Amino acid sequence: MGCTAHDVIVALRSAAAVVAEHRDELIRLDRAIGDADHGENMDRGFRAVVAKVDTAAPETPGAVLKLTATVLISTVGGASGPLYGTAFLRAAAAVSDVTELDGPTVAKALRAGMEGVIARGRAATGDKTMVDALAPAVEAAKSAAEAGEGPAKVLSVAADAAHQGAQATEPLVARKGRASYLGERSAGHIDPGARSTALILSAIAETARSRQ
Questions:
Q1: Distance CA 198, CA 202 (A)
Q2: Which SS3 state, helix, strand or coil, does residue 101 take?
Q3: Helix, strand, coil content of the chain in percent (nearest 5)
Q4: DSSP summary character for residue 30
Q5: Cβ distance 189 to 29 under 8 Å?
Q6: Residue 145's pLDDT is what?
Q7: pLDDT exceeds 90 at position 177
Q8: Bridge partners for 3 per DSSP
Q9: Which of 24, 40, 101, 188 lies most in the core, judged by the most C-beta atoms within 10 Å?
Q10: What value does the CA radius of gyration of the chain take, rounded to a whole number of Å?
Q11: In terms of CATH architecture, what is 5-210?
Q12: Rounded to whole angstroms, how far apart are CA atoms 60 and 78?
């Protein structure tokens, strides 16, 4: 069973709810090594996404992803808006105008999104950024898709890998972004962008599983 535009919209509503639930946690994580605004910015951005997709009613998954990108870029402050916006924009381009997403297409979208983040933020794995959550998620999704799994399973293993990747940022010394200014003092804290990435993927995966 593939994921339609409606399924993607439902998944985004779930992602918005999870971001709202973890808003304070993301603020705390960002306070330790950043500007303390990640939770607030992400909450505002995803609330705006839900409001927009509900009124615009885009007809394909790609159109939903493109609209999400536009809203996030215009409403999320700091570096997160351009990074998340670019991820969704690249994902939208990757899925093009297909009406349903299958497992391989989901994996392709995740990879395109990660490549967009890398291009925009010039970060690599080990830099203590959202890439540390995205990279293992992309690899897990690729393996699941190649094994013939559908969207729900592809997203599920990607989310699990993203959580492990986010947790693994705790001992790292940041090499990109505001956290890099702290040098060795950035170690001992989970990267807020990696954490929000894992939370969002988990919400989307849970929605996909429930709609199988």
A1: 6
A2: strand
A3: 75, 0, 25
A4: H
A5: yes
A6: 98
A7: no
A8: 101
A9: 101
A10: 16
A11: Alpha Horseshoe (1.25)
A12: 29
Going from N- to C-terminal start, the domains of the chain cover 5-210
Is residue 97 classed as helix, strand or coil in its secondary structure? Answer: coil
Distance between CA atoms of residues 101 and 4, nearest Å: 7
Query: Which residues of the chain form beta strands (DSSP E)?
Result: none
pLDDT tens digits for 72-116? Answer: 999 997 889 999 999 999 999 999 999 999 999 999 999 999 999
Q: Partners of 101 in the beta sheet?
A: 3
What CA–CA distance (Å, rounded) separates 17 from 51? 13
* CA dist., res. 153 & res. 144, Å (int): 7
Contact present, 156 and 139 (Cβ < 8 Å) = no
Q: Which residue has the tokens 């536009």?
A: 70
Which amino acid belongs to residue 118?
I
**CA–CA separation, 27 vs 199, rounded Å?**
14
